[in-house]
Amino acid sequence: MTNELDALLTALYVKIDDEIGDCRWLGRPPRLIDSELVCLAVAQAMLGFASESRWLRFVHSRLGTLFPYVPKQPGWNKRLRAALPLVKRVIRLLATDTVFWFDNHWIIDSTPVECGRSRPTVKRSDLAGWAGYGYCASHSRFFWGLRLYLVCTPTGMPVLWALANSKLDEREVLTAMLDREPDTVTGRPGLLLIADKGFASKEFEAGLALRGAELLRPSFRREKRRKGESLLKSVRQLIESVNDTLKGQLDLEQHGGRTFEGVTVRVAQRILALAAAIWHNPVMRSLTAYDH
User: Fold this and answer.
1) Most exposed among 13, 46, 135, 197, judged by the fewest C-beta atoms under 10 Å?
2) E runs forming strands in 50-167
3) pLDDT, tens digit, 9 for 90 and up, residues 175-219
């Protein structure tokens, strides 16, 4: 593990321990505390270990001095799945600890999260009913799984995120995300949401206007060109690069989750790793310094 990842995990451990390290346990506290669990989850995503058994062998052989106790695979899997609220809390904690949190320009997009390929897997999977068949236009392929909806700043810092059935309307999902956390929108005068044509709707834009936000998207041929549309292509490329980071460097589609809790926490684990990298190095979003 390089000095860069050492520095990131050390800073992250101190931040989490200072903010939420005073949690009280009703019984005997776990031997692996929450701060260590989150740091290990980030390191696993950064180093590209999709297999938990290989990851735990690596931790025991290479990181034993930093983490004296790490549970075996069943215990690790159980702790990680139960840590979803903690991971979501840390993502928000890191986002609000940067100047990017006050950015009033948000970029919105969705990307496929494949959960199975064979027909027997689709029939037997615990994700049936939540996951479904969808189509990815950017890669011209059908898939079975979910869609990750990500709202982030132009630097890539995650603000809101959600997993939803691939057949759901994008506007409905984003509206539900904003309804769930209305405080993130209020108090941001001039909030501009940058999206693609999939979010086009007069009703949807009217709903955003009631929240004090404006939607910038590509115009259709029958429409007049919108203000600022000339810069839209370069800005939209930013969210594409964020998705590429999640899939190319953090192996988003190699999550290995087979249940609702398993898929959700493993996707959150990768979003956390992205947020931690931006929080630790605001100048650039590259994870190259941390992935080896």
Assistant:
1) 197
2) 105-116, 132-136, 141-152, 158-165
3) 999 999 998 888 788 899 999 888 989 999 999 999 999 998 888
**Separation of CA 133 from chain center:** 21
Residue 213 lies in a domain: yes
**Residue 281 domain flag:** no
Contacts 24+ apart (CB under 8 A), 210-218: 211/178, 211/182, 211/185, 211/186, 212/185, 212/186, 212/188, 213/185, 213/188, 214/190, 216/192
Query: Beta strands 158-165 and 141-152: pairing type?
Result: antiparallel
Q: Give the CA distances from residue 278 to residues 5, 99, 163, in Å, rounded to whole numbers and listed in that order.
A: 13, 11, 22
Are 161 and 184 contacting, i.e. CB atoms less than 8 angstroms apart? no
CATH number of domain containing 220 = 3.30.420.10
Domain enclosing residue 235, as ranges = 104-255
Q: What is the pTM of this model?
A: 0.93
Residue type, 30: P
- DSSP strand E in the chain: where? 105-116, 132-136, 141-152, 158-165, 191-194, 213-216
Please give the Cα distance from 22 to 89 (Å, whole number). 15
Instruction: Read off the pLDDT of residues 128-142 as tens digits, 9 standing for 90 and up.
Output: 888 889 988 877 889
| 80 within some domain | no
Domain count, the chain: 1
